[in-house]
Amino acid sequence: MTAKPRKTTPPPDAPAAPAQADAPLHAPTHNIWLAGLGALASAQANAQAEGAKAFESLVQQGLAMQARTQALAKEQWTEATQRMGSLTAEASAVGSWDRLGGIFEGRVARALASMGMPTAPEIVALTRRVEALEQALAERASADAAAPAPAPASASASAAARRKPRSPR
Prior knowledge:
This protein is mostly helical. The chain has 3 helices and no strands.
């Protein structure tokens, strides 16, 4: 038995060599395709190089913008704080302290009234009465000093005048 020589056939996935008749038709499209891939690769390389530079440039611009806006915001915040401080100082200096004082005075007055203490108008009226009585006493004392003194009565007569009459039983 002798072995027959085998025919070699190309593997099924191996591309077949283009026929000479197809070569002129596919060559230009294939070259266009390859030129497009080359242009894309070149653009990608340029974009990466330029992209890194552009990115750094944008970062620097962003930092500068952030610094400007923070400075502006801080300035406006300071101005608003000063305005609010002056407005609240003016409003609270007059209004708040007056209201607080009124509340405090009212509570103290109620506490004093519950303990039986006289109010300020009652003390003023009482002071006027005392002054009027002192003046009346001073006038009477000066009138008595100017008038002659009555004769002293006997001790027994004055004692009898002071006694009460006895009521019959």
